[in-house]
Amino acid sequence: MTIIGTGVDILEIERIEKIIKEKPRFVERFFTVEEQKFFALRLMSVETIAAGFASKEAVVKAMGTGFRGFEMKDVEILRDSLGKPIVNLFGKAKDIALGLEIDSFQISISHSDHYAVSFVIALRNL
Fold first, then answer.
1. Strand 104-111 to 85-89 pairing
2. Confidence at 92, pLDDT banded by 50, 70, 90
3. Cys staple from 55: which of 29, 77, 85, 87, with CB 3.0 to 4.6 Å?
């Protein structure tokens, strides 16, 4: 495997909590239906939502693109059957990743009472 890029994002959970209160459609606007279902299973935990947002940011940093030419919903962060985070790309984000020869991502997510952080490695499988 070859590392194509890395990305990390950290944010204050309180900031996301404030945004959710001010903009009730925030979750619907930036997260896929499957992500929203995951959040519902977690009782709409603001820590989980913040970690999801940080993860999307970390993915696009690992790609080296930012959110240029695609939407936040084109990057999806879910969990496998063991709870390990996984990255799914759709639409233009997927097309861009393929053009960059990114085959997969490794992602780690964590949060404390005040911060959510995500670290992502974009990989090309040889």
1. unpaired
2. very high
3. 77
